[in-house]
Specification:
heterodimer, A: mainly alpha, Histone, subunit A, two-stranded antiparallel sheet, B: alpha/beta, Amidase signature (AS) enzymes, 11-stranded mixed sheet, 15 helices, about 15% strand, globular
Chain lengths: ~90, ~475
């Protein structure tokens, strides 16, 4: 199961990673080898087996609908790289 | 008084405190002094806490656990300088129990790794032989406990990150049943697998720490009610049915020294009154690793999407929002998180979802069923924890797949949400070997009982030979 350079670039875009040329080259080889190993799961015919998303048989965890204090604004922004009043500052998005 | 932190167990430390033979701050200071003396070589801690509060037995916390006012990096540059504004539930429970924090321990970046070499802050070394790795991802906590730099500590385990380092460092580590310990405030890796677990010098200490941190938490809706913890005292195993899964004990790559020590421990269990029988987990071991390396990266790629340079953590400035996010993530994540984010994103992407992630979820069902079937006949299952003893630094860093194989034997039970306990069972070439005990969900008390009886009979000395 080889992954192409184009696929690596596409996945990097989806994952929001600006990879360097060296990383693109290395990951193309490494991901191909790993994908070949994990493709082993397709050897099994599991058409009748339901998927498991979670190891516990929990259904719903209910809680009382009560208001509780949340973080103060200054705490919320304590680790922010750039704050603008009550907002996180970022460059233009469009 | 002078304290030998190398030998002191948490229970003994508790006795000293209760009899007023030492004060909480004196005990905390003794561990900080030991860190100052020995951690230059080992690098178990990323930072220590000089002015921690509490009059109880001090504790080491893996750096994925949020600690209010104390930098928490998860071993990553993307979180350098991040200071949580609140405690993780497990840290809060330690605080309420009066356990002062000694420091935050080293980890593979985002707990992704089996050797602690993926930490962005440099590797931790094994106290039995500093040319070797302590295992991972929780190598910092495990090495600290073995080197007498903490009487006990907390790690986190996704596919073996508590059990495997405990095996390689020669101490006791529990990966609890999924849902018994709150994950609130713990840096997320793969949410359907992540569990917090205690590490200690012996089983009773491990059980005691588990009793402090386990229990339902309103802040984590996946937590469940936990049976009262019983500190083990029995030295016999009469009536216990032990299953030896063939695939976990005959797997390719298990070193002869490891296989021998585990076989001897099983024979000893029989002498203590247990009934031993062989069983099978035909597909769990064969397909477990592949299943794990689809599900865990898929969940990780989703969890790590939050590191965008906007609300906290590293930011690399750029002219546009997209460029800011992409550059921040490229600069902030190391090789292993990038590899797993890429793998997980691919496995979840349109056109591949059913073949990879969807199929892996079905394999997970098969693994759960096979273990349930084994537990119809047996109370616990046993195997080596790690196929090998501690390996040399650098031995597997160039080959991700070889590194992934380190967790071959711990992964299947993690996929099934089952608890597992590592108990040291001997030495091979002067390095510790770990025995893995696996039980059904919520069987921690059984694991503690068996682990205690075995460690008592085995008489393993947890202090590394070179430090004695």
């Amino acid at each position: 199961m080889a992954i192409t350079r184009e696929e690596v670039l596409h996945v990097a875009k989806l994952a929001r990673l600006e990879l360097s040329e060296e990383e693109i080259e290395r990951l193309t080889g490494e991901l191909s080898a790993i994908l070949e190993a994990v493709s082993k799961v397709s050897e099994l015919d599991l058409s009748d087996v339901p998927p498991t998303s979670h190891p516990l048989a929990l259904v719903n965890a209910w809680d009382e609908d009560e208001s509780r204090p949340s973080l103060e604004l200054d705490e919320t922004f304590a680790n922010a790289p750039a704050r603008d009043g009550d907002l996180f500052r970022v460059p233009p998005t469009v | 008084m002078s304290l030998d932190t190398l030998r002191l167990t948490a229970e003994e430390a508790l006795g000293l405190l209760e009899r007023n033979e030492v004060s909480g701050p004196e005990l905390h200071r003794a561990y900080l002094d030991a860190v100052a003396e020995r951690d230059g070589e080992l690098h178990c801690y990323l930072r220590t806490v000089e002015d921690a509060e509490g009059n109880g037995v001090p504790i080491a916390l893996k750096d994925v656990i949020s600690t209010k006012g104390v930098e928490t990096t998860a071993g990553s540059k993307i979180l350098e300088g991040y200071v949580p504004v609140r405690d993780a539930t497990v840290a809060a429970r330690c605080r309420e129990a009066g356990l002062p924090t000694i420091g935050k321990t080293n980890t593979d970046e985002f707990a992704m790794g089996s050797s602690t070499e993926n930490s962005a802050y440099g590797p931790t070394r094994n106290p039995w032989d500093p040319s070797r790795v302590p295992g991972g991802s929780g190598g910092g906590t495990a090495a600290a406990v073995s080197a007498g730099l903490a009487p006990w500590g907390l790690g986190s385990d996704t596919g073996g990150s508590v059990k495997q380092p405990s095996a390689l460092c020669g101490n006791v580590g529990l990966r609890p049943t999924y849902g018994t310990v709150s994950r609130f405030g713990v840096v997320a890796f793969a949410s359907s697998l992540d569990q917090i677990g205690p590490v200690a010098k012996n089983v009773r200490d491990c059980a005691r720490l588990y009793s402090i941190v386990a229990g339902k938490d309103a802040c984590d809706s996946t937590t469940v009610d936990v049976p009262a913890v019983v500190l083990p005292t029995d030295e016999r195993l009469d009536g216990l049915r032990i299953g030896v899964p063939r695939e976990l004990n005959d797997a390719e790559g298990i070193e002869p020294g490891v296989a021998d020590a585990v076989a001897k421990a099983i024979a000893l269990a029989e002498e203590l009154g247990a009934e031993v029988g062989e069983c099978e987990l035909p597909r769990s071991v064969d397909y477990g690793l592949a299943c794990y390396y689809l599900i865990a990266p898929a969940e990780a790629s989703s969890n790590l999407a939050r590191y965008d340079g906007v609300r906290y953590g590293l930011r690399v400035d750029a002219d546009s929002y997209d460029a800011l996010v992409e550059r921040t993530r490229d600069a902030g994540f190391g090789d292993e998180p990038k590899r797993r984010i890429m793998l997980g994103t691919y496995a979840l992407s349109a056109g591949y979802y059913d073949a990879y992630y969807g199929q892996a979820q079905k394999v997970r069902t098969v693994i759960i069923r096979e273990h349930a079937e084994a537990f119809e006949r047996f109370d616990i299952l046993v195997s080596p924890t790690s196929p090998t003893v501690a390996f040399e630094l650098g031995a597997k860093t160039a080959d991700p797949l070889a590194m992934y194989l380190s967790d071959l034997l711990t992964i299947p039970s993690c996929m099934a949400g089952l608890p597992g306990l590592n108990v040291p069972c001997g030495l091979s070439e002067g390095l510790p070997i770990g025995l893995q005990l696996i039980g059904p969900q919520l069987s921690e008390n059984t694991l503690f009982r068996v682990g205690h009886a075995l460690e008592t009979a085995l008489g393993f000395d947890p202090v590394p030979e070179r430090l004695r």
